[in-house]
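Notes to self, Symplekin/Pta1 N-terminal domain-containing protein:
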Amino acid sequence: MAGGGVTSREQTLSLLSAVKNHGDLAVKLSSLKQAKDILCSVEPASLVVELFPYIVELQASNEVLVRRILIELMEELGLKVMDQSYVFMPVFLAYLKDDASSVVRQTIVSGANFFCSVLEEMALQYHQSGKVERWLEELWSWMVKFKDVIRGIALESGPVATKLLAIKFLETYVLLFTSDDSDVETSVKEVKGQNFNISWVAGGHPILDPDLLTEEANRSIGYLLDMLRSAKTLSGCVTITVINWF
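result:
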């Protein structure tokens, strides 16, 4: 690592080891937060890539708070070093099925931010050069898997707070791939702060095919409509959330 590189690396490894092996939760959390501060402040961010495997090892932690902070760390590092973030994607998918609903909720939030950023990066690449780099195509394939799992969470029975976040993700997905008129574009920017515009991918990249993406968005609308039709089986707040979107 730059600027006291060896010292920073060894300090971070020591902190990550404490998160993994120490028996005291307070020590684990303190160590993870310190490691997070170091990892997220290193510039250039690519210098921390060699530590990614040690971060991934922490996914098996029995502590809910550790897993929650870990997914936040993976989001931050993944966004800073996107071309290497594929190593975190299996953890995102695994945590969508975590036993702790708070971990699932954080994963949806972090994953949604990551989803929008990956989409924007792909669209920018295609808009600027007419092609998308291979690593980014592979990363998008992970995002598609992520979206499919969240759709299942939205449609299946489960904790209400988690379902609400999953529904919000589907709503954002629909907005992203709906007609790019000014009202919709403004809505997307207000919701996620992203700059994606579906018109950027007009012309037909195999992955960024606007017709296929719009078709998938329409299917998501169908899922939300199906939820309304079965409103009697849903909690009041879930029904209100879906109705408000329409």
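- The mean pLDDT is 83.
- The two ends are 49 Å apart (CA to CA).
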